[in-house]
Structure formats: structure tokens, C-alpha cells
Amino acid sequence: MSYSMFKNLTNKVLFAAVFATLVGCSATPSTQNDTSISDPKDPLEAINRPLWTFNWEYADKYVLKPASEVYVDNVNEDLRGGLYNMALNLNEPSTVINNLLQGKFTDAAKSTGRFVLNSTIGMLGFFDPASDFGWGRKQEEFGEVLGSYGVGDGPYLMLPGMGPSSVREEVGDFVDRYYWPLAIIDFWPNLVRIGIIALEGRHQLKDQEQLLENSTDTYEFVKNAYFQNMRFRVYDGNPPIEMTEEDEDFEAFMEELDDIE
């Protein structure tokens, strides 16, 4: 498959995501008692749930998890760490631009320093000397840029073989692919890069696997965890506190008491 074919494929994915947005925005309950859509963030739940079952019960169980275990057990830990560093190092230029788009100039400077130092002294990112200078890795995606400007997540998406996502994240990933150097990497090298990230990511989730197994509804557990993580990333780990209607009523009641006093 050529890179042009790969870009055509991503265009189709984007079109599908935008179509899902339009469907999600235009679909409204016919009556107030219609409970077919229980979560406004998940208007495609009827499609997403079967896809989650496929991902968790088949794709992960029989492909991703065994592949990750074989990779971890048979590849030297230092080599694995180096390959993982190289794969993530290619994301640094997009992180620089996305930080600049949010006015995070200090973070953009650190990411620039990370990329230059690790790509030279660090041998194309195999080593991570930038961390010794306090320039820790902090990936910033275009989806987070959109979120910082108030763009909502959009409908929740469960992608076959890939996992949870949202329309905003898919649009962000589409834009990130056109940043240098990802835009000039051919299909197969990029597939290897994605594979390394996926295998390491699955290994890192091993300790959290029991939490998922113990949950009452694994689909809801993963969906809630996804949106919490996205919110955490958009606000750089310091999201504003959301007040429920009960909290607001209690606060109003306390203010009335203060006025009486």
C-alpha cells in the first residue's frame, strides 16, 4: 500500500467521523420519554457496544495481548525502551506546534529542545538525554488544541481493533499526521512505529486490567475512563471542578443563609 493510498484511507475515516457527528447532532428523541439514547455523549452506543465486545473479547484477547506478551518476553528491555523512545520522538515536532497554538511557549521550547537533543546526541531518539535536563516528555495533540478552544469531544467512537476515541480526537489525529516528519514517513515504517507504540501501551495497561475485569459494565468503565482522561489532558492535569445541580442548590442555600446573618 502506497502512502497516497494510506492518506486516502485516513480521508475516508475522517469523513466517517464527520458523518457520525452530523448524525449524532441531528438525531433527537421523538419524545421526552424516549430513552433509546441514555448518554448524549454516546449516540452511537448501539454500534459501539458490539465493537467493544469484538475489541475486548477477540482482538485484544487473541491478538494484541498475546503479541504484547511475546514482544515483552522476547525482546531485550533496553532495546524495547529505545525503540519506544524513537517512535515517540517522532511526535515531538507536532507537540511543538500544538503547544504554540495554545500559547504554551515554555512547553514548546522544551519539546523543541527534546527533539533536537534526542535526535542528535540521543541517536535519533533511541536514548532520552533530554530527560536528564528536566525536559520530560509531554505529548500534545491537535485534539487537545481543539479542546482548549472549547470544542467538545463530539460523539464517542469505539474503533474496531483500535479502541475508544471521539470525533474530536479523530479530527485531531488526522491533522497531526500531516505534521513533519510523520507526513513524509512511508506506510510500512509508520505501521511499525504504530505497532511498537501499541505493544508497549498494551503492556503498560497490564496492571490496570484487573480493574476492568472487576467492573460491572466494562463498556461504561472504559468510556468514562476515556472522557476523564481526555478532560485531564486538555486541562494539563488540572481540570476545573464540575458542580452538579445539587451542589449549586446547596451553594445557593448557603449564600441565602449568609444574607440572613
TrEMBL record:
InterPro entries the UniProt entry points to: MlaA (IPR007428)
Transmembrane helix listed as a keyword: no
PROSITE patterns per UniProt: PROKAR_LIPOPROTEIN
Keyword terms: Signal
A matching Pfam family: MlaA
GO biological process: intermembrane phospholipid transfer
Superkingdom field: Bacteria
Signal peptide region: 1-16
One cellular component (GO) term of this entry: membrane
Stated family: Belongs to the MlaA family.
Protein name as it appears in the record: ABC transporter
Organism the protein comes from: Thalassotalea marina
